[in-house]
DNA sequence: TTTTGTGAAGTTTTTCACAGCG
DNA sequence: CGCTGTGAAAAACTTCACAAAA
């Protein structure tokens, strides 16, 4: 079953929403309601969910728990992914905190931290060992870590990556830097650029203002 | 001039890339090179840039500075956007730090912080006044703040928003929570869900593994 | 010769609209 | 009657391929 990328993105949104719906509200939800809460058309929601077969009840809607579990079976990890975080500044620390909270639900573990600050290297932070960035290739390999989250300054990113890819266990990178990083082509890289989102918001606000003045 | 959303997204990437190219490398760059560095086809890059008219030199490429300035004129803010951050945990603090660094380049200022912790409310953090979340409507209005960044726990998000929208100055929200927030329809909301990106990475890695075993 | 700029073709994604089921 | 599931139509987006400029 081949599922388009925009659909994947929305399924992740549906799952997050359903987790809340299950706690707070009833058991049944319609495509229309899901759509309204997320700013998506009902028809789009139904098309996305049609991948799971005839899972809704006509005239009624979808059973939230059943729907959640279908999405989770498709998207969810079947095993624990071992991850590491490079860069233990505020962002890195925020990630550790969230990760420890979220990791029960979503299956991943933070196995190692990396930094260059002497007061961090060699200590445990939130119970996780912090190593020097220069040892990243060795440690990732030793621990069999497959995913690296980069929360370092931009100008350190390529250096970190070059060392990290020495570990043949590494398969994916999530980067919070705005650096363009170069990796062997068998490694998957996703980027989150916080300030690009803020810029996008400003741009759309500006557009909106210009429209109003005409 | 109407520009499609995927194009906007890529233009932001080009701008980030060009800022680096201008520092480090030469003055001239081709659509092919831009594409390779960002994982985009050259023809796509050229189509995106064609919005600016005939700005490149055939047989040569684009002048990096000129190109940067064209993109920045289109996307960049024409004035300083006043912003506030709700939630001064690690994530909020990371944002303040970046914001103070980035705000010189991109035109915005952080005018106020909001939290509920007694040891934060009433103090200055990195030189910015921190107020109680319950006063957010009043303070945003007083200071004429137009953009709110939410870095609070999920379950506080709707409460914050409900108060914040009392300020008629508020135009846009950037949320780092995974909460589905409900706002008046004249307020623009963008969301960044860090863990959704991580999940997406895991999903694609899983897909890749399944493909290999067949 | 190299690389742009761009119509036209191709592909992907969204929306429509309605039959069909509970 | 209300809401799903889904082909078919429409819209949006990307890629091709090549003439034209430097």
Order of helices and strands of chain A: HEHHEHEHEEEHEHEEH
Mean pLDDT of chain A: 93
- What is the tally of beta strands of chain A? 9
Poorly predicted runs of 5 or more residues of chain A: none
User: What's the number of helices of chain A?
Assistant: 8
Q: Tell me, what's the shape of chain A?
A: globular
Residue fraction in strands of chain A: 15-25%
The oligomerization state is: homodimer
Provide structural commentary:
Two copies of one chain form a homodimer. With 214 residues, chain A is an alpha/beta fold. Chain A contains eight helices and nine strands. In chain A, the strands form two sheets. Chain A has a seven-stranded mixed beta sheet with strand order 5-6-4-3-7-8-9, sandwiched between helices. In chain A, helix 1 runs antiparallel to helix 4 (64-75). The longest helix of chain A has 20 residues, at 5-24. Chain A is globular. The mean pLDDT of chain A is 93. Chains A and B meet through helix 1, helix 5 and helix 8 of A and helix 1, helix 5 and helix 8 of B. The structure holds a DNA duplex (22 and 22 nucleotides).
